[in-house]
UniProtKB/TrEMBL annotation:
Keywords: DNA-binding, Endonuclease, Hydrolase, Nuclease, Restriction system. The keyword DNA repair does not apply. Belongs to the type-I restriction system S methylase family. This is Restriction endonuclease subunit S. Residues 103-275, 413-559 form the Type I restriction modification DNA specificity domain. The lineage of its organism: Bacteria, Pseudomonadati, Pseudomonadota, Gammaproteobacteria, Cellvibrionales. One of its GO terms (biological process) is DNA restriction-modification system. GO terms for molecular function: DNA binding; endonuclease activity. It comes from Parahaliea aestuarii. It comes from the Bacteria. It holds the Pfam family Methylase_S. InterPro entries: Restrct_endonuc_typeI_TRD (IPR000055), Restrct_endonuc_typeI_TRD_sf (IPR044946), Type-I_RE_S_subunit (IPR051212).
Length: 667
């Protein structure tokens, strides 16, 4: 047992370093990360606890068979005295279907053998109501019950509970809403029928039962028998048919104490990691803000030198690289990403060309004059323009005969019709054409002004505001809904730069500041038309787009490498857990509580490039004939695990090490 606990504590850096980036869509995502390793560690602790591997067995403990006899006698007595109803009979446990091996001093029994419910009643006086929301699932207690009059009683308020009762939420979204009723409630407590109620017989520690019901073993059982689609659940019969491993009472108490001790360690690790993530995120955002706010070349270079010196330790998360991407866009539209060349024709010439074209069409009666935003409306970006740049607005950069407008109001969907773009089909800068719905032709014909032209820029205006995508050639003649704007960009400007501009934080912030609405926040099309845009010379627009594409491509490669490294960390934490607890198809555990030696074989292999002076990991792999398992290389590197992952990311990116494949477990 000491060896098991030692492996857990020796691997704390593995557990704390194994994280998963939470799926997030939209610009400005929080960058939240799931502490996957710590979550797995909690599950592992519970699995070890109910497998007899967490604390040692003691020959002096009371035999379980004697406990079972005492419980059977207590059940008979309660039935005879009509305190409880005669329980249902269940089939004997099929020994070939038990979840996992246990020590020889334990016994597998059904929940019906170790506890009972108290029946149901309809409230006839004031009572304490315990529903699913009243449970503090972290502490495993009833924390927020309600005192209710019988006239206001919900129809689900029926199940009787008492001090020492364990209540278990049977509905899937709340499977871990489990609690021990740890005190007497006044007035009388009654629980919702959304709970299964089990009051343990003498010889069962309620806290041990609580821990078991939270374990992956029992959760797996519930998920295998639950029924329902929207809210899968199990009934009382299925609950009491579930099996539970019973250790001696003294060992139950040792298990509860050890689980609580290790869970407190997990709590501390979680706080430490969250504080570390927050501090790291703040540091990255602060340093990048200094870079974007630099007022001159000297300040910019000083800010960049600070970042470059610590680049490999600063940018180790998907969120931090996302911040770099936003910084690139901000630098692009503030004139700090590429140099200005005095020979470039200034942006004012482009604006004159656009104005001349519009004037001619107005004189020919082919379009009408639009209101020009005031100087105050335009002068709201908060930075000085670079030499040769001009400040303009969205509507001034439209094709002369068109304006920015939204699409079809209340589209009528049909099998045949006009492909119509909704917000949900604009993802990652592109339109998911295969997911488009079609609007009835007659309905779509009333919105001819928003017929799509290849190259038009689409912008989401409601809900998730500011997502952009270009119209591809295959969507010519399509349309958009009222929640999407169509921006017909003038032929005199580089539409790719306009997209960079709208994607940049400065314009995103401007749109966010103009949003209106309560249920569905959005930006008014009239406000969007007057949004200020910083316009560089046409040649500089092309240079900016080229540099942005180059740098964002590097960021994407960095994110891919991070995902590979993150995957290794997750695999290692999974493999350690699988090794200790085994699986239903390949049990590593034995009744004696022993376990086999583990060998993690997540393979690392040399890449195509010769390792440089900055390489640490590749030479170690080279010494192993070009291939070795990840954990062995980590140990030889003598690096802290987070540092090892950061270094591995850099060497994969440099081509010194190949991107690893999934690991396996031997032993």
């Amino acid at each position: 047992m000491a060896a098991v606990e030692k492996l857990i504590t020796d691997s704390l850096d593995v557990w704390s370093s194994a994280v998963k980036s939470k799926a997030a869509t939209g610009r400005g995502a929080s960058g939240e990360r799931e502490l996957y390793g710590i979550k797995k560690l909690r599950e592992l602790i519970l699995d070890l606890a109910v497998s007899g591997l967490l604390v040692p067995q003691d020959k002096k403990d009371s035999p379980v068979k004697k406990l079972l006899e005492i419980m059977a006698a207590e059940k008979t007595k309660l039935v005879r005295e009509k305190i409880i109803k005669k329980p249902k009979k269940y089939e004997p446990i099929d020994r070939d279907k038990i979840p996992h091996a246990i020590p020889s001093t334990w016994e597998w029994v059904r929940l019906a053998d170790i506890g009972h419910d108290w029946g149901q009643k309809t409230p006839d006086c004031e009572f304490t109501y315990i529903d699913v929301g009243a449970i503090n699932k972290e502490l495993g207690v009833v924390s927020e019950p309600s005192v209710i009059l019988p006239s206001n009683a919900p129809s689900r308020a029926r199940k009787i509970v008492r001090k020492g009762t364990v209540i278990y939420s049977t509905v899937r979204p709340y499977l871990l809403n489990i609690a021990v009723v740890d005190r007497e409630f006044e007035p009388e407590p009654i629980a919702s029928t959304a709970f299964a109620i089990i009051h343990p017989f003498t010889g069962i520690n309620a806290s041990y039962l609580h821990r078991y019901l939270r374990s992956p073993t029992f959760v797996g059982y519930v998920e295998s028998v639950q029924a329902g689609i929207a809210y899968p659940a199990i009934n009382d019969k299925q609950f009491f048919a579930g099996v539970i491993p019973i250790p001696p009472l003294e060992e139950q108490e040792r298990i509860v104490a050890k689980v609580d001790e290790l869970m407190a360690l997990c709590d501390a690790l979680e706080v430490q990691q969250k504080n570390s993530f927050t501090a790291h995120q703040t540091l990255v955002e602060t340093l990048l803000a200094v870079l974007t706010n630099a007022q001159n070349a000297e300040a910019f270079n000083q800010a960049w030198s600070r970042i470059a010196e610590h680049f490999d330790t600063l940018f180790t998360t998907e969120h931090s690289i996302g911040q770099v991407e936003q910084t690139i866009l901000q630098l692009a539209v503030t004139g700090k990403l590429v140099p200005q060349y005095p020979g470039d024709e200034p942006a004012s010439v482009v604006l004159e060309q656009i104005a001349a074209e519009k004037k001619q069409l107005i004189e020919e009666g082919k379009t009408r004059k639009e209101r020009v935003p005031s100087e105050e409306e335009q002068n709201s970006l908060g930075f000085d323009l670079a030499p040769g740049w001009s400040l303009t607005s969205v509507q001034e950069l439209c094709r002369p005969e068109e304006i920015v407008t939204y699409g079809i109001l209340k589209p009528v969907w049909s099998e045949e019709g006009v492909p119509t773009v909704r917000i949900s089909e604009m993802r990652n800068g592109e339109i998911e054409i295969d997911k488009l719905r079609k609007c009835d032709i007659e309905r779509a014909s009333k919105f001819e002004k928003t017929r799509l032209v290849p190259g038009d820029l689409l912008i989401t205006k409601d809900g998730t505001i500011g997502k952009t995508a270009f119209v591809p050639p295959e969507l010519e003649g399509g349309n958009i809904t009222q929640h999407v704007l169509r921006f017909p960009v003038s032929r005199f400007v580089d539409r790719r730069y306009i997209r960079v501009c709208i994607d940049a934080p400065v314009c995103q912030a401007w749109m966010a500041g103009e949003t209106k609405g309560v249920a569905l926040k959005g930006i008014n099309v009239g406000d969007f038309r007057k949004m200020p845009l910083p316009l560089p010379p046409i040649k500089e627009q092309a240079r900016i787009v080229g540099k942005v594409d180059e740098l964002l491509s590097i960021c994407n490669r960095l994110k891919d490498c991070l995902k590979s490294v993150e995957k290794i960390a997750v695999q290692i934490s999974d493999l350690i857990g699988d090794h200790l607890i085994g699986s239903s198809n390949n049990k590593i555990l034995t009744n004696s509580g022993g376990y086999k030696e583990m060998k993690i074989t997540t393979q690392l292999m040399l890449g195509k490039r010769t390792p440089g002076d900055d390489s640490i990991i590749a030479p170690l792999i080279m010494a192993e004939n070009g291939k070795a398992d990840a954990k062995a290389i980590w140990k030889k590197s003598q690096l802290e695990l987070p540092t090892f992952y950061s270094q591995l990311k850099l060497e994969i990116e440099a081509g010194y090490v190949l991107k690893p494949v999934a690991g396996i477990l031997e032993g």
